[in-house]
Amino acid sequence: MKIQLNGYILVPDDRLDAVRAGLIDHIRLTHQEPGCISFEVTENPDIPGRFDVAETFTDQAAFDAHQTRTKASPWAEITAGIPRDYEITEVPG
Question: For the chain, which domains are there?
Fold first, then answer.
């Protein structure tokens, strides 16, 4: 089963520049991970500070590896304490 994550993060105004800058490497590194099918983080045009997140991995192991890498990355430091609202689902594939 593929693993999909959909949701958003709500970035405070005073951290927007750091998040935007860090996002470039975060996206690049995630796209290079084995099992990453898609990974998109886009700034919502209608809700200031909201970044919409949509990602798909080939299976639970690939998703877990992504989570492990991310927790030890600069992205984790840049976004520490920022509210997130995600839904993770399994989809056939």
Answer: 2-91 (3.30.70.100)
